[in-house]
Amino acid sequence: MEKNNYHITKPIDLRDFKLVIGRCQREENRKKTSEQILRKRIHYFIMEETETTHRALRILELYSGIGGMHVAAKETGLPFEIVGSYEINTTALDVYRHNFPQTPKAYNIMGLTLEQLTAFAPDIIMMSPPCQPFTRQGLKRDVADARTSSLLHLLGLLEEVHNPPSKILLENVVGFEKSLARERLLEMLSKRNYTWQEFLLSPTQFGIPNSRLRYYLLAKLQPASFCFTVSNELKEAVPFCLCAVNSSLTSCNCSKTRLNSLYNMLYKYHSSKNVATLETGDLYSDFPLPLSSYLNNDTNYEQLLLKDKILDKYCMILDIVDRNFTRCCCFTKGYGHYVEGTGSVIRQDMNVDISSVYNKVNNLPVGDPKRLDLLKKLKLRYFTPDEIAKLMCFPSWFTLPQSLTVRQKYRVLGNSINILVVTSLLLILCEE
Ligand SMILES: C[S@@+](CC[C@H](N)C(=O)[O-])C[C@H]1O[C@@H](n2cnc3c(N)ncnc32)[C@H](O)[C@@H]1O
User: Fold this and answer.
1) How many CB atoms lie within 10 A of CB 221?
2) Residue 10 — pLDDT band, cuts 50, 70, 90?
3) Which DSSP symbol is given to 384?
């Protein structure tokens, strides 16, 4: 079982406790029960209650990549155990093992059998199936793409297994909501009597200065229900208060319910980053943290500077930000290798007027050495993998092995998830 510093504990119901004491006392009067027996009975009562209320959640982590779901589970503070974790990519496996050497690992989900799934007896399945079959670059081949086979195989198992998980959390790219794979998923959920809610969420809604709009699905096996009203529509926000309020401010400026576990987790995250943005009573999304909160000051940026060829050819399509910006684009696995739509770059030299540079560059042809000289003044650099990991809300204890190349680090991070968003959703899913 994972050891957490801050378990969420449900207090033992005092009425039950009083009942046991009352019963024991009556018995004691009648049968002269010894104090030792009385103590034992109370001890067993407490043990039993603790076991049922604090039993570690059994999580089966599929398509585990570098372990983003595992990290999110840890960040909830809930007691849990990863009973199995499946991943085929060796680089991602290296990162996973580097951070979680103890977790049992398996490889291809295609090899998962009904007997194994039964034996795992997961309370929760957490998964981010491959997203390429649902993206434009991946040709949107959906269920016809071989990379969807393992998801279809899993859905087949979930239709059959006699002990289906009581909860499911799935993450994917925008586009999944229109796919046949999603239809197959909903068919299984409906057959097995789940209730579910779909979301499109980005970390920016949680006050993180990084866009990563993603599809999420939360499902619960009935008769269990969600702590909010579910709808057939995709929700584009979580149905709870996401306001920055500390204990001295009792109210906020939204009308949404406060979910304590979520509220505490977000407050803890934001107060560790920048107290100034807190205690406004307004939404975290209205006060995104500046990128400076995520950048390394001691970065040797010379080796991260964009190459001349890239600057000259692609300067018009770069998304350029600086340390005072409160946003940057989604980092994908092609970052540092491809330019278009793979993530922002940073202007390291803020003393140079970017508008005047671009006004002049606009009037010079590609290949003109003067154009390159002007662009070079901006000192445009890539974000480091560490900075990207921070923007994706990976905690500082999570590290990438030094043996990986920078390109490998970009690839595995680009495939991963935003930890704060998934932690929030897991807390919502686990709320009774
Ligand atoms: C979107 S990524 C998951 C990222 C993960 N949540 C993380 O935090 O890194 C999908 C992962 O599924 C893995 N994968 C694809 N097909 C698989 C299969 N049949 N069995 C196990 N893993 C698979 C890929 O190697 C990839 O790492």
Assistant:
1) 17
2) very low
3) P
Give the rounded distance of the alpha carbon of 403 from its chain centre: 25
When pLDDT is averaged across residues 299-304 and rounded to a whole number, the result is 85
Nearest CA residue ID for atom 10, ligand 1: 130
Q: Calculate Rg over the CA atoms of the chain.
A: 25
| Annotation: CATH topology of 56-239+417-430 | Rossmann fold (3.40.50)
Mean pLDDT of the chain: 87
Looking at ligand 1, which atom is closest to the CA of residue 130? 10
The contacts of residue 423 (CB under 8 Å, 6+ apart) are 72, 75, 76, 265, 393
297-383: which CATH number, 3.90.120.10, 3.40.50.150, 3.60.10.10, 3.50.50.60? 3.90.120.10
Q: How far apart are CA 77 and CA 8, in angstroms?
A: 6
Report whether 200 contacts 234 (CB < 8 A): yes
Please tell me the distance from the alpha carbon of residue 130 to that of residue 61, in angstroms, as a whole number: 14
Going by pLDDT thresholds of 50, 70 and 90, the confidence category of residue 1 is very low
pTM for this entry: 0.87
Q: What is the reported pLDDT for 366?
A: 87
**What confidence score (pLDDT) does residue 15 get?**
42
Instruction: Out of 131, 252, 328, 393, pick the active-site residue.
Output: 131
Choice among 107-116, 189-198, 289-298, 352-361 with the minimum mean pLDDT: 289-298
Q: How many CB atoms lie within 10 A of CB 144?
A: 11
Task: Please identify which residue in the block is written with the tokens 């499902």.
Answer: 219
**Residue 93 CB contacts under 8 Å (≥ 6 apart), including other chains:** 87, 105
Six-digit token pair at 102?
């103890």
Cα angle 92, 186, 145 (rounded to 5 degrees) comes to 50
Note whether 235 and 247 are within 8 A (CB): no
For ligand 1, which residues put their CB under 6 angstroms from it?
63-69, 86-89, 92, 108-110, 128, 130-131, 150, 415-417
Q: How wide is the angle at C-alpha 168 spanned by C-alphas 108 and 147, nearest 5°?
A: 35
Q: Atom of ligand 1 at shortest distance to CA of 63?
A: 12
